[in-house]
Every structure is written in structure tokens, then in C-alpha cells.
Design a protein that fits this description.
The complex is a heterodimer of chains A (about 190) and B (about 525). Chain A has seven helices and six strands, in the order E-H-E-E-E-H-E-H-E-H-H-H-H. Chain A has about 190 residues and is of the alpha/beta class. In chain B, helix 15 crosses helix 19. The chains are: A alpha/beta (about 190), B alpha/beta (about 525).
Chain lengths: ~190, ~525
């Protein structure tokens, strides 16, 4: 079994934390993993992406080939479309619904929604609002991870929750609990 | 034990476990995390491994050579363009030779994710005539550090470990072994005095060692041949091996190359067993050119020079599969509505206030140029500021402004960050002072090396003293605090100093908001724990 995931968003939205948690869970589960990140200049408010590959067999390439990502997990709707050529024809998009507008030429939301609507399978949710509703303003990325968890069949929700505990442990119990709550809200909130 | 590590972290841990004495480096994407890992590592701290940042790559290379001379294994890390800065010391370190192992990690950035060119550091290996190791994955990166130090000590020459962005910044599980003790060979008993007569003898010795280097490559466990059938031979270098394996699995004839000089016998064998060869290498066509020379122009050879792989940009699983004739999966078309989202200066960043003031003041002159430099503030070239006329290399803002002023151009303004100023700006400022060039230098001091993630900056709290010591008149070294509320004062001071016919320095100083926030978080945490 294997899964190839493109994680994306805007610098500072917390996609590397999602990658770290999936990576921790995969390593603990004894899976092979490769995770290519973007560091440096592109972090400053620019688009960021991470290629995440999990498999019970050997993985060679650090990058995902076009047309072969099983899933795009995006903090932001336009960013989810940026990586479309990587998505498999039957691949899934899991994305936050609220645009992050820090450029003057952000496209009309209507056209973004239309393009998303034309795709095979899209889960879209206002992850900021859900994070807010569970009292974790900075937890939108964990809500998104919860949404995606249903589709990451190679790992169970419990394994991802364990990883959240491990990764946030040094920040204290309250941070761990807040992030688990956000994860659960995302997990429960997916409209089937 | 397995650990999940970035390629950079695997290099760092491999070096620590190989008994490292010290790392010398200047931050630069994608190499920065190597030194940061060593700085934070408990064993490295316990062992007193040197890991403080250096002022630039040249000082780093020289200090490492000194540590090697004194008998301890030394590591130098830099991004590819750092090799240009270190080149004088590096090339001559091949002539002096080394004592304890000396490994130079060069992190190349094909596709220029965060760089101004995509030069290939393997040219430096051939240029200095020293071995290169090029890991294909994180495990090899870890293992190779021990091998590289051993090879360096066996040959008594520096060894380059060359990685690319996609390995440096990709994570995978790495099996780690027990750390060996810190090595101490004692101080070198030779003199490394490169006077011409001695240098000639040393150079002859370096040439003699080439056969040993070649033999080491031919016997290296990192170079291996796989026979999978067909009549195409694939030379897969470093990370290129992964893309080849991804595309063809075990159904091709592959010569994996991860140690240089090129294993010539293995290449001749591959050529004789196949009817054509393709070279898959990330970066510039270094190996392709060498193989062409080795096999002759008649042998059917494909690669970047023949257009079978793109001439520029990094390798990807897609362009490698295509070059190998492997069918690719059908893909969605790119979205037509997605807009570019370039990086930008943070909201609240002091550089923003500096550019706002500079643009307003300079707009009052008939024409002007701001010569830029390398750092976050290079983003001032983009909208909304569009302020820069140039950004070339570390320190070039001051010297280019000087050259333009020497040509009679006015106003000629340089903007440079604090860390870049100490890296390579100080000598240029001395030139300007000695020539009484009519320039204004803005040292936008955010008290850190911002673009690479907030490392210590070598000159913090010393800038006024440095400028005055270099000969800038004290009354023309002005400090301001870049905040919107101070805009009128900043503009007034900039105007006065631009109009002063000589060298003036304006230092807008306010801490990077990212490092300030990080320090605040750390302080809060320390308080909670106390």
C-alpha cells in the first residue's frame, strides 16, 4: 500500500506541521516515508508545498510524479488548484474554503469554486471557522489534517492523534488538547 | 535505531558520529540546517564541537583548514555560490593537502529555488582535483560522512560532499550507528607554506594522487552497477538515481555514480555492454561532458547537452521518465486561473519602512539608482516598492554604487543587510572611503540573518564602530529606527546624507519581527518553566 500527498498553502499557514505529524505517525507505524519541503525565501508569504510519500515498500523519488498524487491537502482553495497537474485522475482534494488574499490579482472566488466543483472528489470546509468554534484560533491546519485523515487509509486516526501528542508534547498539555480537539472537529466535520 | 531526518540533518548527524571537531559555515539555503542541527545536538554540545556561525564562507573554509592542521576533523558547509567566496582557500587547500579529515559540503540549488544561479559544485571538485561524494538519499548522506572523513585522511586531501536542494530539504528515516570518539591526530608536523617552489612540489604530489582518487572511485561501495536488460546504459548520478529507479525499477542497466572522479572502467564497461548511454545528473552537464571525452564523439550519448533532458532546471521524476521513454500517467491540465504568489516582506518588517522612505526621498531627484544586495530586503525589488536596480552577489550593492558614483552618476545608493555587510560589504566600503566616492550606504540592520531563518549576525552591535574605523566620518554615520511614526525623521536624515558629497552611512535598526516573536515565545516559555 502507498499514498502520495501534496501538502500546500501559503508560507506561515502551518503546512509543515501537518507534514511533521503525518511523518511522525508513519515512522512509528514502520512505513517508509519521503517528505520534500520548501525552505528559505519562498516562506515569506509565498506559495509553499511539500511532497509527502508513504509506502510499505521502498520509495525512491523524493518528488511525486505528475498525474500520480492520491491527494492534495491544501490550506487554501486557489493553492489547491496550483498543483492540479500532480493529482491523479481519480485523486482527491481536501482544502480549506477561505481564500488567503495577499496578492492584488487573486482570482474571483466564483471561478475558483467552479474549477474545484468540476473535479472528481473535493472536500472543502471553512477550517478557520471550525478551528475558531473549538476555541483554537491557530488550529486550522489540524482541522484540515482531521478532514484528510479519513482518506489517508495507510494510517489510522488514532495513529495520527498519537503523533499530535508526540509532536506538541513539548509545548504543554493544553496545546496538545487544543490540537486534538481541532483534529477531531475536522475529522467529524467532513461532509460525506 | 532509525531517525526521521532531512538530508541536511543526516549530513550533520553523520559528521557528529564520525568524530567531528567543528563545523564552520555561513547560512545559505539549502545548507543552513546542517550547522543548525549541530548547534542543537546534545552530543555535539557535550563534546564541545565548534559550531558558531562564521562571517563568510572564506573565513569558514580557512578556519576548518586550521582545525584540520591541528588534528581534528572539520566540516565546512555552504550553498553553491558560497563556494565562489571560499574558492581561494578551497582550491589552495588541495595544494597544501589536509591533516585531519576535512569535508566541504556544497549544497547546490538547481532550479534556483532560493538562489541567483544554478552553478554545479562538481566543477569545483574537478577544478581543485579532489574527490567528490554525491549521496542519492538521506541514508547515504549519513553514511558518507564517515566515508568522506576517512577518504580525506587517507588521501590527505579535502573531500567535497555535494547535495542538491531536493535531498537537503527532504526527510526520510535513517538508520544511525554509534558515534565514534572525537578524532585527534595531534598537530601537523609539516609546514603548509605555498611559496612557488614548495607549491610546485605540492601540486606535483596532488597530480600523483589522482590515480589513488580514481582507484577509490572504482572500488567505492557508492558506485554500483545494476543489470536489468535492454541495450540502453543509464549513468545515474546522486539524486538522479532515485528518479531513474522510480521510472524503470530494476528493468534497466544502471551505473549509479555517487563518488568522483568518474569510475572510468565501469563507464567503459557500461558502454561496451550497451549500444547507447544516457547521463541523468542534477545540475549542469558535468558528467556528460566527461563521458563524452572518455568514450569519444562517435559513441551515442544522451543527456542535457543533447536535449533529451532539459538543459536548465532540476531533475524531476517527470523529465527523467520522459527521457527514458517511460509512459507517464495522464495528468490534469494546469489551472488557468491560479495567480503567482511571490514571496514578500512580512507585514510590519522594518525593511518596508526603509524602502518607503527611500522611494519617497529619491523620487525628488531627476533620476536615481538603488543598488541592492542579498537578503530578505532583495524582495524590495518586487511590487509594491520596485526599488532596486541590481542584486548580484553578497556585498555588490556598495561596490556597484561606488562604481556608478565613480562614473559620475548621482544619487547612487546602496542597500545591504547587517549580515551581508559583514560577510562581504566592509571591504567595499573601505574602497569607497579611500576614493571619497559620493555614495550613501543604507545598512538595514534587523539584528539577524533573516532570510535563512534568523541566525546570529556577526556584526551585531558593532556597525557604527566598523564604519567609523573604516574611515566614514562619524557625523555621517546615522542611526534611525524604521517605524512609520519616524518616517519624517528618516526621510530628513536620508536626504541630508544623500546630499552630502562623500561616503555616508545610514543604519535603520529594528529587530526582525520573526526573530523578535521567537525570542518573546522563548522568554514566555522560560518564565512558565521557572
Amino acid at each position: 500500500m502507498k499514498i502520495d500527498i501534496i501538502l500546500c498553502g501559503v508560507g506561515g499557514q502551518g503546512i509543515l506541521s501537518i507534514a511533521t505529524i503525518i511523518g511522525e505517525a508513519a515512522t512509528k507505524a514502520g512505513l517508509n516515508l519521503k517528505q520534500a519541503e520548501v525552505h528559505g525565501m519562498s516562506q515569506r508569504g509565498g506559495d509553499v508545498q511539500s511532497h509527502l510519500r508513504l509506502s510499505d515498500e521502498a520509495i525512491y523519488s523524493d518528488l511525486i510524479a505528475q498525474g500520480s498524487a492520491d491527494m492534495i491537502i491544501s490550506m487554501e482553495p486557489m493553492e489547491s488548484l496550483r498543483y492540479l497537474p500532480y493529482l491523479a485522475k481519480d485523486g482527491k482534494i481536501v482544502t480549506g474554503s477561505e481564500p488567503f488574499v495577499n496578492i492584488p490579482n487573486y482570482p474571483e472566488m466564483e471561478s475558483v469554486q467552479k474549477e474545484l466543483g468540476a473535479l472528481h472528489a473535493v472536500d472543502i470546509m471553512d477550517i478557520d471557522a471550525v478551528a475558531k468554534s473549538v476555541g483554537n484560533l491557530r488550529g486550522a491546519n489540524m482541522v484540515l489534517l482531521g478532514m484528510a485523515a479519513r482518506h489517508i487509509q495507510i494510517l489510522s486516526a488514532e495513529q495520527l492523534q498519537d503523533a499530535i501528542r508526540t509532536i506538541f508534547a513539548r509545548k504543554g498539555e493544553s496545546v496538545v488538547e487544543a490540537n486534538l480537539k481541532a483534529f477531531q472537529a475536522g475529522f467529524n466535520g467532513v461532509q460525506e | 535505531m532509525k531517525k526521521l531526518l532531512l538530508g541536511d540533518e543526516a549530513i550533520a548527524l553523520g559528521a557528529i558520529h564520525a568524530g567531528l571537531g567543528g563545523v564552520y559555515a555561513y547560512p545559505g539555503t539549502p545548507s543552513t540546517e546542517i550547522t543548525e542541527f549541530i548547534q542543537a545536538d546534545a552530543l555535539a554540545r557535550e563534546r564541545g564541537v565548534h559550531s558558531r556561525w562564521c562571517t563568510n564562507e572564506k573565513t569558514a573554509m580557512e578556519a576548518a583548514l586550521g582545525m584540520s592542521y591541528a588534528g581534528r576533523r572539520a566540516l565546512v558547509c555552504m550553498k553553491h555560490v558560497g563556494m565562489n567566496v571560499a574558492a581561494d582557500a578551497f582550491v589552495n587547500s588541495a595544494i597544501t593537502g589536509v591533516h585531519a579529515g576535512l569535508v566541504v559540503v556544497a549544497a547546490d540549488d538547481p532550479s534556483m529555488h532560493s538562489s541567483q544561479n544554478e552553478q554545479d559544485s562538481r566543477f569545483y571538485g574537478a577544478f581543485a582535483m579532489v574527490p567528490i561524494m554525491e549521496p542519492s538519499n538521506q541514508q547515504e548522506a549519513y553514511n558518507m560522512m564517515q566515508s568522506a572523513f576517512e577518504l580525506s585522511e587517507k588521501l590527505r586531501e579535502p573531500v567535497i560532499v555535494r547535495v542538491v536542494t531536493r535531498l537537503a530539504h527532504s526527510r526520510a528515516a535513517v538508520e544511525v550507528h554509534e558515534a565514534v570518539d572525537v578524532q585527534n591526530l595531534g598537530v601537523c608536523q609539516e609546514r603548509w607554506v605555498l611559496l612557488p617552489g614548495i607549491a610546485r612540489a605540492r601540486y606535483a604530489a596532488l597530480i600523483d594522487k589522482q590515480a589513488d582518487m580514481l582507484a577509490a572511485s572504482e572500488a567505492s561501495v557508492y558506485n554500483k552497477q545494476e543489470c536489468g536488460g535492454g541495450s540502453l546504459g543509464i549513468i545515474a548520478c546522486g539524486i538522479g538515481y532515485n528518479y531513474v529507479k522510480e521510472a524503470v525499477g530494476s528493468s534497466a542497466n544502471i551505473l549509479k555514480v555517487s563518488q568522483y572522479p568518474l569510475p572510468e572502467k565501469a563507464i567503459r564497461r557500461l558502454a561496451s555492454e550497451n549500444s547507447s548511454i544516457i547521463v541523468v545528473e542534477d545540475g549542469q552537464p558535468v558528467v556528460e561532458q566527461q563521458v563524452k571525452a572518455l568514450l569519444g564523439a562517435e559513441y551515442p550519448l544522451k543527456g542535457r547537452l543533447t536535449g533529451d533532458l532539459p538543459r536548465a532546471g532540476e531533475l524531476t521524476p517527470d523529465n527523467v521518465a520522459q527521457a527514458l521513454g517511460v509512459e507517464q500517467k495522464p495528468a490534469h491540465a494546469a489551472s488557468a486561473i491560479v495567480a503567482p504568489r511571490p514571496p514578500q516582506l512580512c507585514q510590519g518588517c522594518g525593511h518596508r519602512d526603509v524602502y518607503a522612505a527611500l522611494n519617497q526621498v529619491l523620487a525628488t531627484y531627476p533620476d536615481y539608482r538603488i543598488f541592492g544586495d542579498i537578503g530578505c530586503y532583495t524582495l524590495g525589488a518586487l511590487p509594491p516598492f520596485k526599488a532596486l536596480a541590481s542584486c548580484v552577489d553578497m556585498g555588490a550593492s556598495i561596490t556597484m554604487a561606488k562604481g556608478a558614483a565613480d562614473a559620475g552618476f548621482f544619487p547612487s545608493v546602496a542597500i545591504i543587510g547587517d549580515s551581508t555587510f559583514t560577510h562581504s560589504g566592509m571591504t567595499g566600503l573601505l574602497d569607497a572611503v579611500n576614493d571619497k566616492s559620493n555614495i550613501t550606504v543604507v545598512i538595514s540592520d534587523n539584528l539577524t540573518t533573516g532570510m535563512t531563518g534568523g541566525q546570529d549576525s556577526a556584526g551585531t552591535s558593532k556597525f557604527e564602530a566598523i564604519c567609523v574605523a573604516l574611515g566614514v566620518e562619524p557625523e555621517h554615520v546615522r542611526v534611525v529606527v524604521p517605524l512609520p511614526k519616524n518616517m519624517e525623521e528618516i526621510k530628513q536624515i536620508l536626504k541630508e546624507e544623500i546630499d552630502y558629497p562623500g561616503v555616508s552611512v545610514v543604519i535603520p535598526r529594528r529587530e526582525c519581527i520573526q526573530t523578535a516573536a521567537r525570542k518573546a515565545r522563548e522568554a514566555r516559555k522560560a518564565k512558565e518553566n521557572a
